Amino acid sequence: MKVTADKVRAVKDKKTMTCPKCGKDVKMDFIEASMGFGVYNISLVNYKYNWYTICPECHALFAVEQEKAQESAKNKSTASVTADDLIFLKDIPVK
Ligand SMILES: [Zn+2]
User: Fold this and answer.
1) Cα(68) to centroid of ligand 1, in Å?
2) Which of 6, 45, 80, 81 is most buried, by the most CB atoms less than 10 A from its CB?
3) Residue-range domain boundaries for the chain
4) Tell me, what's the pLDDT at 1?
């Protein structure tokens, strides 16, 4: 029996947005972290999705607002994500 739990994957859909931190127009990569419980890839308990994105210019890490992340994960699309949905978490130290 293969039990699935926390998963992290890159969202294929990139999106050009204005970074709320540095104000530049950048192509944002989104990362999806899902938490739930399932067997043979069939979800038994509803998955909860969290989306994160990192600005390629200033390396700020943002979380996507929870409801928007759920909706976007369901639609497998970043179309409805806007800069207003990004919650600044921290700066990622870059060498
Ligand atoms: Zn930025």
Assistant:
1) 20
2) 81
3) 7-91
4) 64
